[in-house]
Amino acid sequence: MLNRKVICVVALLLVIAVSFGAWQIWLYLNLLVIKEDFESGFGEWEYDADVPLDPTNPGQPVAWNITRLTDVVYSGQYAIRLFIDGSQDDGTIWLERKIVASKNAQVSVTMSFWLFSEHESFNTLAAVVAFAGVRNPEEESDFEVLGAANQVSGWKQYKFETTVNTEANGEVWVALGVSVRWETVMTYYIDNIEITVR
């Protein structure tokens, strides 16, 4: 009688261990990790913007650019500089890329990155924003605010987590950047992006 109970308990423990191991293997095989430090160009990242027109230059958008530079870096030799003329108290600029994940599935997207602010400010000069979804972001309203960009003088890590329901192509678009909240010219730097999709 005792031996039968012991055998049943051992068998149950083996089933649980095998199931847990299979689940861990499934998670590992379905885990996608992307790291970007911009040491070899922009990689698969592109840049985009939703900015207002410049009243001093009719028909033209306000000045903005996103460039790869060496003057301020978190690690390595390169980082990305985001510059925008926020004098119109409006405008969002960002980096974006497409990722191929599981098709027709609910996937968890986690994105972390480091942002450099030249100055700490009690005013919110700009917001740090992020996005993940099945479409290419095109407007400021597509983004979620992660916090103020001027929380510290120097580097600060930001993190974004969400769930995306993919379609038949399995595509997930991710993006991160800054959105103007104060009427001033502003420059920030981004480095060491890490994205996990599972």
Written account of the structure:
The chain is elongated. The N and C termini lie far apart (45 Å). The chain has two domains: 1-30; 33-197, Galactose-binding domain-like (Jelly Rolls). With 198 residues, the chain is mainly beta. The protein has one helix at 2-29, and strands at residues 32-36, 46-50, 64-69, 79-85, 92-100, 106-117, 126-133, 144-148, 154-165, 171-180, 185-197. The chain has one helix and eleven strands, in the order H-E-E-E-E-E-E-E-E-E-E-E.
- In the CATH hierarchy, the third-tier topology of the largest domain is known as Jelly Rolls
CATH superfamily of the largest domain: Galactose-binding domain-like
Envelope shape: elongated
* Share of residues in helices: 10-25%
CATH class of the largest domain: Mainly Beta
Layout: helices, strands, pairs:
Layout lengths: L1 H28 L2 E5 L9 E5 L13 E6 L9 E7 L6 E9 L5 E12 L8 E8 L10 E5 L5 E12 L5 E10 L4 E13 L1
Antiparallel strand pairs: 1-11, 2-5, 3-4, 4-11, 5-10, 6-9, 6-11, 7-8, 7-10
Features:
198 residues, mainly beta, Jelly Rolls, 2 domains, 6-stranded antiparallel beta sheet, 5-stranded antiparallel beta sheet, 1 helix
